[in-house]
UniProtKB/TrEMBL annotation:
Gene3D superfamilies: 2,3-Dihydroxybiphenyl 1,2-Dioxygenase, domain 1 (3.10.180.10). InterPro entries: Glyas_Bleomycin-R_OHBP_Dase. This is Lactoylglutathione lyase.
Amino acid sequence: MQVDDIRVFVPCKNYQQSCDFYQALGFNVEPASGDLSIATSGECSLFLQRYYKKEFAENLMLQVCVLNINEAFNTISKLTHFDIRFEGIKQEPWGKVIYLWGPSGELLHITELN
């Protein structure tokens, strides 16, 4: 088996709010069906689904690798109208990271790798 891509399905507590949140992060969000959207940035994409299970959403973690962590932090800092929380940039042995909890409780590791 040769894998070409792996995409995660992110559960959405409030589907429209999640679509708006990922779009504000810089993703292009397009509907795929009435209950599913594809959020794309460059060659990377994920699915936003009109489905929510609290236990799953609050245990879902995504690593989102970026080229410039400071630019990412500036973008995230402006998202005050969303029900999210985030921590400042942290230096780790493997790079820098911002921990960002999305509107459904999913944890995004916004990462600039060394």
